[in-house]
Amino acid sequence: CQYNGQYTNMRLRDYVNMVLQVDQDLKPKLPDHDANRRASIRFDQPTLGEALDVVCAAFGLRYHLEGDTVVFAALGTLPAGMQQTVRWLPADAFPDTESAQAALAARGITFPAGAAVQWDADRREITLTDTPDNQRRFADLLRADDGSGPDGPTHWLQLADGARLGLAVDRFEAGSITGHHPVYGRCTVPLAVVASIRTVAPEADPAVRTFADWRLQPAPEPVLPEDSGPGAALVGTEPESFRLPMAAGATFDLGEERGKVVVLDFWATWCAPCVQSLPGLIEALADFPEDKVRLVGVNQAEPIGQVRRFLEARGWKLAVAMDGAQRVAKEFAVDAIPYTVVIGPDGKVARVWTGFEPGGEREVADTVRKLLDPR
């Protein structure tokens, strides 16, 4: 293309018309609501395809050819009957003198109207927009070439709460990353909870290496405290008061809550049943007046910064007390989490639950309701 340099605050329509001047046979088709949007772009003597890529990146669009028409569409908007996948291949996957589309067509991948392929050797990234049948053929080609197929992780996500997730990423979007995990299946991860993204597997941290030779063993089923178990002995007793620092600052003092119904939920960020149960419990108790009912999550031996990041990432409105030494957990006979204790206005333990059961939050809410109005 015969242009380069910085272009300031031009409309999308003007950029496209300028780029397509090099091929008078091509006609643009723009989204009506985007045609007059403006952006500043720098060109460095690009080819026609590179220029179109730069324009699309600046305006959050994608394009494909339909005959002699260049069709522009918003990211995530695909032609009818098409799917899009993004894979990462060796930098020399396609010869410099041969286009990716020609190479794939020679190996049986067809490109009907609306289909397209983009290959970026520098990023080792190939984006294929094609029919489901052709996507399967493409996956078979990858398996035939190196035996690995497209299902292994292409990116490793470090999440804000410290967790790591390896995904075979399909696409990056404005607010999320979508891909496939061999255990969890298809995943969509909000960018708001992603701290960093790597294209190579991270080294295991010292904590993970410590447990490298551990083997999972089936855990015993939780014993319902209504029948037996350590928690059953608490019902009807008045626990000793305790004080714990709060994740948001200040201090939680059980003695100061006398006259309210207090729900203590012992939990940790690594505990999947806890993470599954707490949102329902928060919602089930949200309608009770704050001056009569207090829900406190009692975190078990985790750093306060990790807990704060975890709560922020999930948007939970939960008061959390930090039981760093698990002293309070020991006083309440906690032998597994989640472990929920309801204390009545009289200061005595009314009910105890161990473990997570779908719908269990309703049972907790019913218990709270009866304590507030015992008639």
Describe this structure in words.
With 375 residues, this protein is of the alpha+beta class. The chain has helices spanning 12-19, 48-59, 100-105, 132-146, 206-210, 272-285, 304-314, 327-331, 360-372; strands at 5-11, 27-29, 38-43, 61-66, 69-74, 83-88, 116-120, 125-130, 155-159, 164-172, 176-181, 185-190, 194-198, 243-245, 251-253, 261-267, 293-300, 319-323, 339-343, 349-354. It is built from 9 helices and 20 strands.
Using the alpha-carbon principal axes, give the shape.
Answer: elongated
Cα-atom radius of gyration: 29 Å
**Elements, N to C (H/E):** EHEEHEEEHEEHEEEEEHEEEHEHEHEEH
Work out the number of β strands: 20
> Describe the biggest sheet?
5 strands, antiparallel
The N- and C-terminal alpha carbons lie at a distance of: 83 Å
What is the arithmetic mean of pLDDT? 83
Structural class of the secondary structure composition? alpha+beta
The proportion of residues forming helix, as a percent range, comes to 10-25%
Oligomer: single chain
| Unreliably modeled segments | none
% residues in beta strands: 25-35%
What strand order characterises the main sheet?
12-11-10-9-13
Q: Quickly count the helices.
A: 9
Concise synopsis of the structure shown:
24% of the residues lie in helices and 30% in strands. The chain has nine helices and 20 strands.
Secondary structure: elements and pairs:
Blueprint: E1 5-11, H1 12-19, E2 27-29, E3 38-43, H2 48-59, E4 61-66, E5 69-74, E6 83-88, H3 100-105, E7 116-120, E8 125-130, H4 132-146, E9 155-159, E10 164-172, E11 176-181, E12 185-190, E13 194-198, H5 206-210, E14 243-245, E15 251-253, E16 261-267, H6 272-285, E17 293-300, H7 304-314, E18 319-323, H8 327-331, E19 339-343, E20 349-354, H9 360-372
Helix pairs in contact: 1-2, 6-9
